[in-house]
Write a structure and sequence with these properties.
Length: about 400
């Protein structure tokens, strides 16, 4: 039996969303002057504009791409793109985990798009992206948050494509390189790599996507919350400071703090380095631990942000599916009870296991401190399993 470790992570928050706050986060530093004021006031609009300006600067977004703040987190941003842009061309839908599969369902069952093709491999695998037809639109996630599987690069996207590429980048952006010229729509949630408050998201659109907005009228009614154009004219105000749904100015203040922190440490390069350091700590542990492995089959597609792990111990694999789920829950409950890993369980639709967030706001020292506790929790659960046999 493994002894209980003595050192705990200083911050046990390893949830994949909402995620841990950035180091030094302190609401006492917030400027509350716009709380309780209209988001249309001059001061509030200046803050909203600052969010977009800092976003463009940190991410290196081309000047001719437009940035808008959405309601409904990343989900709202993706839905806005699907409902407003799809229809003129067939669409290729690549989904390899829960959220990507949601976009498949929306396109095929809600919008009922003719000519839609879906590519949906099992959890842990990436679909054959080379099957994308450049004459088609394309919807995909850059990083599957629930599976820990990411695309290697965007080489499979043609520079001469005729269709639009719509990329859900919520657990990738700020720490993974996104080739903007390959992507026509990019969406993300503030609650992932930035560690900011949920409910708001961002949509980034290329000139090609804006052209689609002004040349295509969807065959279905578009809800006001998703309405990016009217009578063939793009809603320019949305891409400035006129957010379609009233934003929380408290959330605006919070994301501004996260963006300022990101800039202060060196931007995306520094954020990627922090993420990689945490991933490498887990990777070294996985390589020496015989009873655990990655859900992602191919090492080149393993996510460094949402690190998804499965148990491979023979005794565990001999259990029924229900018993495996109970075992994984027991491990997670032990970690939670000791307050060393909160909300680190696998996504509900994924195979049982652990999902550890290693995005830029997580300190690598906390990841290292967590790993001996996982050893202890697994050994404890296995001992209980033997006793019950």
């Amino acid at each position: 039996m493994i002894s209980k470790p003595s050192v705990k992570p200083a911050d046990p928050r390893f949830s994949c969303g909402p995620t841990a706050k950035y180091p030094g986060w302190d609401p006492a530093r917030f400027d509350f002057s716009c709380i309780g004021r209209s988001h249309r006031s001059r001061e509030a609009r200046a803050k909203i504009q600052e969010v977009n300006d800092r976003t463009r600067r940190i991410l290196g977004i081309p000047d001719d791409y437009k940035i808008g703040i959405t309601a409904g987190s990343d989900t709202g941003a993706v839905e806005m793109a699907l409902w407003s842009l799809l229809g003129p061309r067939p669409v290729d839908l690549f989904g390899w985990e829960a959220f990507g599969l949601d976009w498949v369902i929306d396109a095929m069952e809600e919008l009922k798009l003719p000519g839609a093709r879906k590519f949906t491999p099992p959890y842990g695998q990436l679909p054959d992206l080379s099957r994308h037809d450049p004459k088609h639109d394309c919807v995909f996630t850059w990083n599957g948050t629930a599976s820990g599987v990411r695309v290697k690069n965007a080489d499979w996207i043609s520079d001469a494509r005729e269709g639009l590429t719509i990329c859900d980048a919520t657990s990738a952006i700020f720490v993974m390189d996104l080739p903007w010229k390959k992507l026509d729509v990019v969406t993300y949630s503030w609650q992932k790599v930035l560690g900011s408050e949920p409910q708001h998201g961002t949509i980034i659109m290329s000139p090609r996507a804006i052209q689609r907005l002004e040349s295509h009228i969807p065959a279905w009614p578009v809800p006001k919350l998703y309405r990016l154009a009217s009578k063939g004219k793009v809603n320019e105000a949305f891409f400035q400071t006129e957010v379609i749904n009233t934003p929380s100015m408290l959330c605006i203040e919070d994301v501004l703090g996260a963006l300022r922190w990101a800039e202060s440490i060196g931007g995306t390069r520094a954020m990627a380095a922090r993420t990689q350091a945490s991933f490498e700590a887990i990777d070294a542990w996985v390589k020496k631990t015989p009873w655990i492995d990655y859900l992602a089959v191919d090492p080149e597609t393993r996510s460094p942000t949402s690190v998804c792990l499965i148990y491979t111990d023979p005794a565990y694999l001999a259990l029924s599916a229900h018993a495996r789920a109970e075992f994984a829950t027991r491990v997670n409950n032990l970690l939670d009870a000791e307050r060393v890993a909160l909300d680190a369980n696998a996504y509900k639709d994924a195979p049982p296991g652990l999902r550890i967030w290693c995005g830029a706001t997580v300190e690598t020292a906390n990841v290292r401190a967590l790993l001996p506790w996982i050893d202890w929790a697994f050994a404890t659960a296995k001992s209980e399993l033997r006793a019950a046999a």
